[in-house]
Amino acid sequence: MILTGPEITAAAHDGRLAITPFEPEQVNPNSYNVRLGPALLTYTAPVLDPHRSNPTQAVEIGPGGYVLQPGELYLGHTLERVGSDTFVPLLFGRSSVGRLGLFVEITAPIGDIGFHGQWTLMLSPIRPLRVYAGMQIGQIMFFVSIGAVAPYRGKYQAAAGPQPSCYWQDVARAQAVAS
Questions:
Q1: Which burial class, exposed, middle or buried, applies to 118 when counting CB atoms under 10 A from its CB (0-12, 13-18, 19+)?
Q2: φ, ψ (nearest 5 deg) of residue 144
Q3: Which candidate, 13, 41, 25, 27, places its Cα nearest to that of 118?
Q4: Where does residue 146 rank: exposed (0-12), middle (13-18), buried (19+ CB within 10 A)?
């Protein structure tokens, strides 16, 4: 079951769901619009390697916005901190943003119960596109879970700002267990 807009509002007020800051005008019939935060990361290595930490460069989105270029992957973040110990969140790009040719979060939309923090957004434009800090870029839907809950305790917990891939930590952990 998916939460309706009024239930999202009720859950945000009674603590079953955390959205900070919470803005009532960002509530939709069955989702909550999230805004783009002011920071972006880009990878600087010519080849990315999931077995190693990859270097990044930080970019601040100024008042005039920032132009995303095709063929680049940008890691952005939600302005809002979002989380729940009760509901399963899924984040998707807004259709209005998709119609501008920006792919938002197409490979990893599901969040875990128990995650609380700013969401990292994987942004890929198909043509040059100016983005602005604070623009409504995505929407999160919340689903009811069935069964026992084991809250998220992973490497991205309490994220602030865009987070590069930490896949290499999984590899290192698996190698340590295998040894």
A1: buried
A2: -80, 135
A3: 41
A4: exposed
pLDDT band per the 50, 70, 90 thresholds, residue 170:
confident
| Mean pLDDT within 53-74 | 97
Place of tokens 């955390």: 18
Question: Stretch 107-134: mean pLDDT, rounded?
Answer: 96
Of 33-37, 93-97, 167-171, the least confident = 167-171
- Exposure class string for 151-179: b at 16+ Cβ within 10 A, else e: ebeeebeebebbbbbebeeeeeeeeeeee
Whether pTM exceeds 0.90: yes
Residue at 126: amino acid letter: I
Average the pLDDT over 13-28 and give the result.
98
What letter represents residue 99's amino acid? Answer: R
**117 beta partners:** 82
**Cα–Cα distance list, 148 to 15, 30, 116, 136 (Å):** 19, 25, 19, 34
Tell me the Cα Rg of the chain.
17
* DSSP states along 94-158: -HHHHTTTEEESSS--B--TT-EEEEEEEEEESS-EEE-TT-EEEEEEEEE--S-------TTTT
Element (DSSP H or E) covering residue 77? strand 74-83
Q: How far apart are CA 19 and CA 24, in angstroms?
A: 11
